[in-house]
């Protein structure tokens, strides 16, 4: 299996979904490192509880020198022979240097149906725009923030009484299904595993994944 690092900044629920998937027989990735840019990231304890190696590379130590921060990250990745990176709620923008090094080997999950709503506050913006559908996207990381080739997407309805929080919770359920499916497609470089999954349950995500 491909040696995987997962980068987090917070709760790490997507990280947990990936770690769970990696425990399945025949899953093509093996988590060897969880890296956080904050010691307070809640996901660190969850990773440790599953016996996964963790490391904190605190961006603040580098006083705004983003490449120095990334050189420290790169050293950790080399130490653990990492082959593929999944960003899972990692809230630092990476430089072209780092992205170039990992091109085609680094993916991200973003909480909107890209190319709509790149950036922050996606749920609030989708409600304000009166969208009827919203969701999440998994994409390769390229120099343009939230602009890389899309691997898969999951859509959920927006209901009239939704708040950013209720919508975020619905999208998060979809994220946890989408990310393991897309990671699997990406590490096995599967160009043909497109599928559509629908459900009668209005709260269930409508998943379209097209590598
Ligand atoms: C997720 O909703 C993820 O899509 C989002 O942050 C949340 C992290 O939750 N990512 C971004 O906004 C990236 N810019 P988690 O820590 O529980 O996985």
From TrEMBL:
SUPFAM superfamilies: Formyltransferase. Keywords: Purine biosynthesis, Transferase. The active site is at 110 (proton donor). The record marks 146 as: Raises pKa of active site His. It holds the Pfam family Formyl_trans_N. Its EC number is 2.1.2.2. Coiled coil: none annotated. N(1)-(5-phospho-beta-D-ribosyl)glycinamide binds at residues 12-14. (6R)-10-formyltetrahydrofolate binds at residues 66, 108. InterPro entries: Formyl_transf_N (IPR002376), Formyl_transf_N_sf (IPR036477), GART (IPR004607), GART_AS (IPR001555). The keyword Transferase applies. Belongs to the GART family. Catalyzes the transfer of a formyl group from 10-formyltetrahydrofolate to 5-phospho-ribosyl-glycinamide (GAR), producing 5-phospho-ribosyl-N-formylglycinamide (FGAR) and tetrahydrofolate. This is Phosphoribosylglycinamide formyltransferase. It comes from Hirschia litorea. The lineage of its organism: Bacteria, Pseudomonadati, Pseudomonadota, Alphaproteobacteria, Hyphomonadales.
């Amino acid at each position: 299996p491909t040696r995987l690092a997962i980068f987090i900044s917070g709760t790490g629920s997507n990280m947990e979904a990936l770690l769970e998937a990696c425990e399945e027989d025949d899953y093509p990735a093996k988590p060897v490192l969880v890296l956080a840019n904050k010691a307070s990231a809640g996901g660190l304890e969850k990773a440790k509880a599953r016996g996964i190696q963790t490391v904190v590379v605190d961006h603040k130590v580098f006083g705004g020198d983003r490449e120095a921060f990334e050189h420290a990250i790169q050293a950790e990745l080399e130490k653990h022979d990492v082959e593929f990176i999944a960003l899972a709620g990692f809230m630092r923008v990476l430089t072209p240097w780092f992205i170039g090094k990992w091109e085609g080997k680094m993916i991200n999950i973003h909480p909107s149906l890209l190319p709509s709503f790149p950036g922050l506050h996606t749920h609030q913006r989708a409600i304000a725009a009166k969208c009827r559908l919203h969701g999440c996207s998994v994409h390769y990381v390229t120099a343009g923030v939230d602009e890389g080739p899309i691997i898969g997407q999951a859509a959920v309805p927006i209901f009239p009484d939704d708040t950013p929080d209720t919508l975020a919770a619905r999208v998060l359920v979809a994220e946890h299904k989408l990310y393991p499916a897309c990671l699997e497609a990406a590490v096995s470089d599967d160009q043909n595993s497109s599928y559509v999954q629908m459900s009668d349950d209005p709260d269930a995500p409508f998943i379209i994944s097209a590598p």
